[in-house]
Amino acid sequence: MQLPPKVTDRAFERLAEIGAGDQGQALRVAVEGGGCSGFQYEIKLDEPAEDDLVLEGQGEKVVVDSISLPFLADAVIDFTEELIGARFVIENPNASSSCGCGTSFSM
């Protein structure tokens, strides 16, 4: 049985700061073919769809479509702030390798 992805408190806090839920939007995390390693993450604000897995916390939502869900089983969705910038990141135990920027991976 595959476990759903987890979302950190820090990621939910960032969504609350930008007011995503107030606008009826959620953070969509999807996996698409492409990128330098074979698959890439698409992370954007979007409206939840009927067949999405919805992860909720602090009044905010993160959604994953049913096609992307197996690629993100047991992954951790987080938010990080560094000198070079701030972004949502995904720690994916299913990825056998990833590129330097962290947005592309292979399985």
TrEMBL record:
One of its GO terms (molecular function) is iron ion binding. It comes from the Bacteria. Pfam families: Fe-S_biosyn. Residues 6-102 form the Core domain. One of its GO terms (biological process) is iron-sulfur cluster assembly. NCBIfam families: iron-sulfur cluster assembly accessory protein. This is Iron-sulfur cluster insertion protein ErpA. It comes from Cognatishimia activa.
